[in-house]
Design brief:
With 52 residues, the protein is mostly helical. The chain contains two helices and no strands. The chain starts with a helix and ends with a helix. Keywords: Membrane, Transmembrane, Transmembrane helix.
């Protein structure tokens, strides 16, 4: 059914856009999170939590 195929294509595009947005947001926020971590007195604990 062509209609169903079109719906599936649109849905997969939406998922792709969503993950692209999440990835972009993550890459943008990582340096900020890292800076906060470094400025934190418990920076070592923060890094340990990241690794585990």
């Amino acid at each position: 059914d062509d209609n169903l195929r079109e719906v599936q294509r649109v849905m997969s595009l939406e998922v792709a856009y969503r993950w692209t947005f999440i990835a972009a947001a993550g890459i943008t926020l990582l340096p900020l999170i890292y800076a906060v971590c470094l400025n934190n007195r418990q920076a070592l604990l923060c890094l340990k939590k990241e690794r585990s």
